[in-house]
Structures are given as structure tokens and as C-alpha cells.
Amino acid sequence: MRVYENEQLFNFEGLESIESIGGNMEVYGNEQLFNFEGLESIESIGGNMEVYGNEQLFNFEGLESLKSVFGYINVYENANLTSYIGLNNLQTVGGDFSVWILLCLILS
Predict the structure, then answer these.
(1) Which terminus in the chain has less CB density within 10 A, N or C?
(2) pTM summary value
(3) What phi and psi values does residue 95 have, to the nearest 5 degrees?
(4) Please, are residues 58 and 80 in contact by the beta-carbon 8 Å criterion?
(5) Is the dihedral of CA 39, 41, 43, 44 positive or negative?
(6) 21 - beta bridge partners?
(7) Closest by CA position to 30, among listed 50, 15, 47
(8) What is the Cα–Cα distance from 32 to 92, expressed in whole angstroms?
(9) Are the beta carbons of 71 and 49 closer than 8 angstroms?
């Protein structure tokens, strides 16, 4: 699943029936993306998860069902990301979990 440079995307409403992603999930350069609402049914990602360059991304709400990412997770250059709320049920990451360039992250 690749979602990139969509200036009109605020969330993922309409994709509620997706339960897994077999490959990678890449979300980048979506200037208005606020969170991941609409992806509430996703339980696993078979590859890597990359989230970067989403200027308005505030948190990971909408990914509360995500339990496993079989590859790595990279989160970077999301200027307004303030928490990881939404990843509360993540249990397994098969590779590294890397985070950088977060100025105001709140872990709660």
C-alpha cells in the first residue's frame, strides 16, 4: 500500500474492511493527513511500514488493531507528530523501529 503526495487526504475513511497488508505500507508527503482513521481493521503488515513527510500527522489513531509489522518501521520528518496513540496494541516488529526528527513527541 503506497499513499503519497495526496494534498486532499485527511484520513483513510472508506478502507475500513482491510484487515491486512501483504507487503509494505508507505505513507509519505501527504500534507493534510491528520491520522489513520479508516484503517481500524488492519491487524498486520507483511512488510515494512514507513511514515514520513506528513506535515499535519498528529498521531496514529486508526491503527489500534495493528498487532504485527513483519519488517521494519521508519517514522521521520512528521513535524506535528506528538504521540504514538493508535499503536497501543503493536506487539511484534520484525526489524528495527526507527524514529527521528520529532521535536514534540509525547509518549503517553
Answers:
(1) C
(2) 0.90
(3) -130, -150
(4) yes
(5) negative
(6) 45
(7) 50
(8) 29
(9) yes
Strands 49-52 and 25-28: what pairing? parallel
Write out pLDDT tens, residues 11-44. Answer: 999 999 999 999 999 999 999 999 999 999 999 9
For 42-67, b where at least 16 C-beta lie within 10 A, e where not — what string?
A: beebebbbbbbbbeebbbbbbbbebe
| Amino acid letter for position 88 | N
Look-up of cell digits 489500534: 64
Residue in this structure with the C-alpha cell 520484525, named with its chain if needed: 94
CB-count exposure of residue 69 (10 Å: 0-12, 13-18, 19+): buried
| All cell numbers assigned to 22 | 501483504
